Every structure is written in structure tokens, then in C-alpha cells.
Amino acid sequence: MQVTFQPPSLSQRNMTYSPQKSNPPEKNRLNTIINSIFRLSIVGIGLGTIFGSILANIDLTQPLFPDLNLPFLNTSGEQDESSITTSESAEVETDNLETISSTTTENIASNSFTFTQELMPLRKKMTVLFEKYANLQPSLFFVDLDNGAFVNMNGMEAFPAASTIKTPILVAFFQDVDEGKILLDEKLTMTEETKATEAGTMQYQPIGTQYTALKVAEEMIIRSDNTATNMLIERLGGVEALNQRFKEWGLESTVINNYLPDLEGMNTISARDLAMTLVKVSNGDLVETRSRDRLLGIMQRTITRTLLPQGIEPDAMIYHKTGDIGKVLGDGGIIDIPTGKRYVGAVLVQRPHNDYTARTMIQEISREAYQHFKWYQPRPTVEGN
Fold first, then answer.
1. Which sequence spans correspond to the domains of the chain?
2. Of 159, 208, 293, 376, which one has the greatest count of Cβ atoms within 10 A?
3. Backbone phi, then psi, for 179, in 5-degree steps?
4. Which residue from 328, 319, 333, 323 is spatially nearest to 366, judged by alpha carbons?
């Protein structure tokens, strides 16, 4: 096949090509940059509006993923050698917190103190001691005054109060002092009805002996004087008036049925009630600052130091009151550690008559609690997170 080349015609040769004029390269680049910035700005404003709306409806004080279980994360700030985030321990903590909350009265609900989480590592240590002393019936309630973390083991159960009942009586006394119903230097007279045996030395004075109200309060706590206790019960309006006041404080199990000495154990209290009384005193919810300082000063001078004080270090301070009858032994106090940490502890132990091992158990419980709170440092809260 033969291909013939045909040259362009004259008209085609005379045609000229005129290219279109284009913008310089620099100008095109500038326009592109400006357009990109403008579009990114619009996108950024849109995303900011969306995320702002989302954040406005999120409670940042709560975890974003509450059901996420991370075994390696210990929110108490301690490393726990065995997983404490199991469903069983979580149920124990939730049940304890709900129980404490559900038993509060309106007065407790207005309290400035809030319980947060149960200290499961400390609870595990206490469980070991409970198993070690299987012949005893213990109860305890410990709470961190700085953050509301707590341990509650049988703490809601009513126990014979013995002389631990004198702690809420002392608080009621200083309430009346604050309200001007009682003067610290007014004279109280010992009567045949208020004279009591067992603890204290006032019983050896003749009927009609007078003491200042403050002296009576001091003897009730420092020497656990039963006569002094009965004199204060009478001055504060009697058993029924005090029981009603305890209810108003939110104490569910604290009841005076007998004058002291109550060797049968008819007066009752719970470890939770005893601890809550001290928590409310520490927070200034029951008495004014001046009375609180005087009250704690009296409790610091308690002579009997064979229970909770045996578990703390010499440079720590404790404000406490013990109780001791044949069937029960107890102690409750505020402990001030040199690190600045403060906590409340209350322990009650029912026992075979005068069983000495109850004392040893309370000492060991106190030691475990002190060492825990001494080193326990909760994770700090970062503002804005």
C-alpha cells in the first residue's frame, strides 16, 4: 500500500497560533495557599463547635469508661500484689458504700464529709486478722479524713458499748457548752443515784461532793470514771434526751439503756457510729472549734493506752477512748501521723469472758491500719482534667 504525503495548503501555512495568556506561577501559588487556609479555618471552626458541644455535656469528674477494667491500674495509689479489681471486691466496695449511704439520716446527709471508696488492700489485711482470731467477733471502721476512703467490716453491727459510750456523751456535753446551756465552771454534785463502782476514783468521795463540770468531763474520759459519766448523763437531761440527740446525729446503734457501770452490756454502739462521731467532731460539724480543741485535748490524756495506741509509732498522736467489760473490748480515736495524714479508727471485739486475745487483735489491727495510712498517698487530682 502506497502512502502519499500531501504538504499543507497555503492557507494552513499562513495560519498563526496565539496561545492564551496565563497568570504568573507566583500568583497561582499564593491563591492556592490563601484558599487552603480559608478552608482549614472553616473546618477548624466546625470541629471546635462539635467538640465544644460534646464536652459541655460530659461530667469530667467521672471516668469516661467506667466499665473498663484495668487490672494494672490501682486508683488507691498502691501496688496490689493480687488483683483487687475483681468483680467480687468491686461488689464488696459498692455494697459497703451503698450501705453507709443508705443508713444516713437527713442530718448526716448535710454533713460536709463524704465517703469515697473502700480501701481494698487494707481490707484484705484485716480479713487475714479476722481469720487468725476466729474465736472472736470483731468489727471495725477506719476512714481517711483527707479523702473519705474507708474500710468497713461488720461496722454497722450493734455491740455492747462499754465505756466507748463516753465519747458521744463528751461530745453532747461540749455541744451544750457551745450553746450556753452548761458552764465549764458550774458545780455538779455527786448523788447516791449517780455514784458508781468499778472505774474511777470519784466513788470514794462522800455523797454531796461537788466538782466543776469540766472536771467531771475530764474524769469521765481520762480515768473512765463511771460516777462522772452518770453525773453528766443527768446534767444533759437524762438517758432519753441523749438517745434522741444521738439519733439526730445519725447514730443508728448508739443507745444508753443503763447508767454506768453497764456490766451486762445493755448500752450499745457500732464501730461505724463511733467512727462517725469522731469524723464529725474533727470536721467541726458537732462542736465549735474551741470546744473541739478542748475535747481532743481531754481524749489525748486517756490513761489506758493498751489498745489502739500500741499499734502507732511514738511520734504519732491519738485522741481516743477505750471500753472494757467482760464480753467486749473496744477503742475509737483520731490518729494524727507525723506525715500530716489523719484518720479515724474504731474497733469493737466481742469475746469469751475477759479473753486476753481481744487486746492482741486490736493492737494488730491498729498496727496494720497505721502502716497503711502512713504510706498511703492517693493519686492527686489535677485541676482541669
1. 73-164+259-378
2. 159
3. -85, 0
4. 333
Which residues lie below 8 Å from residue 120, measured CB to CB, with a gap of 6+?
76, 80, 84, 89, 92, 93
Element (H, E) at 2: none
Amino acid, res. 107: N
219 in helix, strand or coil? helix
Cell numbers placing 316: 504519732
Q: Is the pTM of this model over 0.70?
A: yes
DSSP 144-162: ETTT--EEEESTTS-EE-G
The C-alpha atoms of residue 169 and residue 34 are separated, in whole angstroms, by 79
What's the pLDDT tens digit per position in 274-302? 999 999 999 999 999 999 999 999 999 99
Q: Residue 98 — pLDDT band, cuts 50, 70, 90?
A: very low
3-state SS, residue 266: coil
In CATH terms, the fold of domain 73-164+259-378 is Beta-lactamase (3.40.710)
